[in-house]
Design a protein that fits this description.
mainly alpha
Length: about 70
């Protein structure tokens, strides 16, 4: 997701370079900062979501006995 949205934020930052000088610095810094931090943010949120979902699965599996798999 970060790779998909990164060009959008960079494009917004490029468009903001045509804004008046007083607004340009803040807008460009925010857009570029989001574009650079987005892959790390999505990786961290994916890790947290994986930990939470594993915890919920283990909690529910303890109550109902889990999933039984027969392999031949």
């Amino acid at each position: 997701m970060g790779v998909l949205f990164c060009p959008i934020f960079l494009l917004m930052s490029l468009i903001a370079s045509h804004a008046p000088a007083q607004q340009r610095v803040g807008i460009m810094a925010i857009g570029t900062g989001f574009a650079l931090m987005m892959p790390f943010f999505y990786a961290a949120m994916g890790f947290v979501a994986g930990v939470v979902s594993a915890w919920v699965y283990n909690l529910i599996a303890g109550w109902i006995g889990g999933i039984e798999v027969d392999v031949e």
